[in-house]
Design brief:
alpha/beta; Trp Operon Repressor, Chain A; 2 domains; two-stranded antiparallel ribbon; elongated; binds adenine
Length: 213
């Protein structure tokens, strides 16, 4: 069982995703377990402060290193060999090949979700890998964390059931996994027809058509 721990100020953003569809199925089958760690509980002082103004000036607030490191240390106690991931626009470009590597690791993951305008850079000393999920900036790490977790969990043995769909993908070059278009009933919908070849029953022709697409 792979343990995935997520450190976040907004566990409610993530709960729905983890308790639906394939991610839920994976935990239900005991292939993976999820634990949400609310960063707020490691905040400083009676107000559980987690952010502060940047040294050198500038707009906005940064997540402080202490609460983040405390949360990571707690997660590490739960799972000492877990890899710590940090979604950030300044990270390494996240690709399908990274998802495959993470799925093959067979060790737990701790995903730290930054928020606000950023974080104290010293946090990176506790991080194994920083990832950027694409050339755009989101409001925080929760959505990138979900992207990473979804892409990894679906690759774990037993999760997709129809392992065929992974097999099909693996034919294609690693980071260019374009699937062929597929159709189901009805054959004709408002004049939009299913390609003839798919109705032909010629398996060889269908195979060729799909690989062309
Ligand atoms: N946080 C904000 N934007 C991000 C991105 N594109 N990738 C990863 N983390 C992020």
């Amino acid at each position: 069982m792979i343990k995935i721990q997520i450190i976040t100020l907004f566990p409610e953003m993530i709960e729905g995703v983890l308790s639906s569809s394939m991610l839920f199925k994976a935990s239900n089958l005991g292939i993976v377990s999820y634990q949400l760690i609310n960063l707020r509980q490691y905040g400083k002082g009676p107000r559980k402060q987690v952010d502060d103004t940047p040294y050198g000036g500038g707009d906005g607030m940064l997540l402080m290193v202490e609460p983040l490191v405390k949360a990571i240390e707690v997660a590490k106690l739960n799972d000492p060999s877990a890899k710590v991931l940090l979604p950030t626009p300044r990270g390494k470009q996240y690709k399908q090949s990274e998802a495959k590597q993470l799925a093959a690791l067979d060790s737990g993951l701790i995903v730290v979700c930054p928020r606000y305008e950023g974080y104290d850079e010293r946090i990176t000393n506790w991080v194994d890998q920083a990832y950027c999920i694409g050339p755009y900036v989101l409001t925080g790490g929760e959505i990138p964390a979900m992207v990473i977790i979804d892409s990894v969990v679906r690759l774990l043995p037993g999760v997709l059931g129809g392992e065929k769909s992974i097999e099909i993908e693996s034919f294609v070059a690693d980071d260019q996994q374009v699937e062929f278009p597929q159709y189901t009933r009805p054959e004709n919908f408002k004049g939009y027809k299913v390609p003839e070849v798919l109705l032909s029953g010629h398996h060889q022709q269908i195979k060729e058509w799909r690989s062309q697409k």
